[in-house]
Amino acid sequence: MKRTLLAAALLAASMAAQADAGRPDPVGTENLDAVIVTATRTAITVDESLASVSVINREDIDRLQPLTVTDLLTGLPGVSLGNLGGLGQQTSLFMRGTNATHVLLLVDGVRVGSVTAGLAAFEQIPVEQIDHVEVVRGPRSSLYGADAIGGVIQIFTRHGQPGGGLQPSFSLTTGSNNLLRGQAGLSGGDEHAWYNIGVGAQYTRGINSCRIGAAEAFTACYIDEPDRDGNRNKNLTASGGYRWDNGAELSGTWLRNLGEVEFDGSYQNRSRTLQQVAGGRFSINPTDAWKTTLSVGQNLDRYDSYENQDFRGYIGSRHDQAGWQNDITVAPNQLLTVGLDWQGERVDSDTGYLDTRRNNTAGYAQYQGNFGRQEIQLSARRDHNGQFGNHNTGGAAWGYRFDHGLRLSASYGTAFHAPTFNDVYYPYGSGNPDLKPEESRSVELGLNQRLTHWNWGINAYQTHIDQMIALDSNYFPLNISKARIRGVEGQLGVDLAGWQVQGYLTWLQPRNEDGGPNDGKLLMRRPQRTARLDVDRSFGAFGLGATLNARSHSYADAGNRQAVPGYTTTDLRASYHFTPNWQLEARLANAFDRDYETVWYYNQPGRSFFLTVRYSPAMR
Prior knowledge:
About 5% of the residues lie in helices and about 55% in strands. The chain is mainly beta. It has a 22-stranded antiparallel barrel. It has a 5-stranded mixed beta sheet with strand order 3-8-9-6-7. A hairpin with a 2-residue loop joins strand 16 and strand 17 (about 310-330). The relative contact order is 0.15.
């Protein structure tokens, strides 16, 4: 697999380098001219970012035809996922070898994730309601506080456009495992205002989430329950805003998803979930050199558990936040950002947590400067956590632009993660009140180039995590002394004779360095190698494409005794614009019916076929 992908990448690069200069911008899902805000909390283009970033826009989403957010993210540089048995099942995302709790998820600027488990429910974000996704790799605690050790993923929901007029949208999907999904939306705007309303629903019979034999092996779901585990959800989004003539802007967003998931289990085998995200923002420019922004947000997360029809319990959490950010142009090409953040975490559960509230306040500052060929970014933040006290984090990045679009970058950053309520406050002897926050330090070196028909980049990094939290054999959380993660990520985008080719490769070495019996072992569920290749081409009204995803083996246990085999899957897709605004889409997922697992003993779907009809005006 590695030899094949490497040969394909080298061939594509060689042919593209010989092509005539003709088009000013390369193609590919990296969208180098796209404006992003996640990397610096200010608007810059991907090409200007000193961090390793990826952007997936709505056109990419329609082209790739994903069923879930994880379909979009799988195989991106540094990203690997673990799914517990198919569509709608719990999914953990690991970035650059760090824990799943070390990835910060934002939805329209609002922090999203359970304050009890510390995990973001990627499986509960409806992909049809997404406008675009920004992925920033590497530590970002100096801007966002706790949790951003491995990186930040920000999802932006659909929105209207000022002056866009009335724009309806519609899609209907059917496919394998009795999948039925529908979405409808209405957006618009005039000279000053914009709005969007969207509604969607999805149902599938699913697959048998847990492999037969789990009861005998006493692992995974600990029971053999050979049935289909279905999933259904319904969602609603709304957003709007108004911009005055003086540049002041007021906007708000709201997303609500209600889900019901069946799974295999002896005490619980069904759950109902709520995921709600709401946020508001007001910005104004008191002077030409100063922009100030006030923001508020809230994330509600609730999980009700059942055994068949019998209610077993609930766990709910609420994450409130508020912020004040000031962007000040201190000189041409020099921007100073200073701000304050506040976060409140609350638990509502019948479990009886030993404590249910804590707050965090923080102040931060960032400087961005361009000096000819050189770029500098400096950031610092001080968090005060009501339970764990003060934590200081910082970051520094430098870039240098050579001729012919070549740029060298280097960075250093620190980050931290506060233990979750489950880690510390869970009753019955399962919580550990002596846990300490995890702290990390990372260094990174990057080299990338952007030419007429192709672009490439390579980033090498090393992260040390002290007091890393892991579960022992009795599922009791402990601080292992440290972990060391080394990695190299490569990506290549090519416009080759009308074909869009985008490839990613990741090599990772996430090792435990606790000095105990597992010293030198690989961290659980992290494959050392992942790869993805997207190939697409349009033939007038027709479109064809394919995605290849590959990953090496990983381990299901800290001692590396149980290997989860590696695999390669291939997805094929086609589309037909039978009118300018109507499109028919077809996707064959796992085309060669590969039998594989991302988590030990949890099944993944076999060969699956999906058909979509979509109405989408030229302007969304």
